[in-house]
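Lecture 7 notes: from sequence to structure.
We start with the chain below.
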Amino acid sequence: MASKRDYYEVLQIPKDASQEDVKRAYRKMAVKFHPDKNPGDASAEDKFKELGEAYDVLFDEQKRAAYDRYGHAAFSQGGGGGRAAAHDPFDVFREVFGGGGGENIFEQFFGGGGGGGGGGRGDRNRGEDLRYDLQITLEEAATGCVKEVELTKRERCDGCQGSGGEQGAKAVICRDCGGRGQVLSSRGFFQMAQTCPKCRGTGQNIDKPCKKCGGEGRATATTQIKLTIPPGIEEGMKLRSSGQGEAGVRGGGNGDLYVVMHIKEHAVFERDGSDLMCDVPISFTTATLGGEVTVPTLGGRAQFKVAPGTQSGTTFKLRGKGMPELNSTLRGDLHVQVIVEVPTKLDAEQRKKLEEFAASMGEENSPMHKSFFEKAREFFS
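Predicted structure tokens for the same chain:
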């Protein structure tokens, strides 16, 4: 039997991580490995269970103290810490993400669940689901927004109010399928059931079809739909708008609208989950002497100090200046990498002073240069 991985390794956090760090790590990874997002992937399901177990222990102060002292033995029979509660990983997920009554988080953000508009999956007259790809800015993803989209789809016919028939029309059993909504077709030794083309699967025909919709009960129309985008939405996530798909045949329930989110590339920031990264140029003098650097954030400006002798490529972390986490009060961090900018144009006086400065420099002021050439000495001998 394979040994259990260290819980801190599972969540990819240090042993001194705060409870907020534990929760943030779990949220980021649980979404990635949730079985609803990885159907049929046994390895993803195992990782999802492992994440739930690790979170259940490390987020609880008493369990975590026992684990830090005894390791996994703390929760084996006879161990010093008793047994860990065997929580269902889906219960842990709902607890962390705030799932409760109504739609769960994956119905809302990754699709799934039953049909909308009163139809349900068992409604053979139910309308088709639709997909809409929506692009928003990083700023809109950070604050949340309301978007109005225009869709051309089949709506309930206003000529017959969805019944499919003219006034006084009657529904009669379809002769082709005998009211079953399906007909059998033979292919060699096999028989296959398919939707009846005469009644479109309803099992009935209208003796006086509506002239506007041809008896289908729905007609093509353009409609405006408002979508509420929550803060923290990520690339590729799906929002399900119940009942906003196509109207069903002859009064059948509406399908659903699945909105796939796309985040525009930002001119300054790159995103990694709830964290943001950016490069900020600083002058040679600021890097050498130290000083205060002003950087952009999604909420305005922020300042941080660089120490004298800061090297190009050094990264500074500004806590809480990243993206909000979905359905949470937590925020990611902003990672700022400073790039030392070298002057490209010097006048005669500046060049002279810089040459004097270079002449005054010793190896003790260039430790990286000295270390490199000591390591590379054999190549120059």
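Points to note: The chain has three domains: 7-97, 130-169+208-263, 270-380. The longest strand covers residues 145-156.
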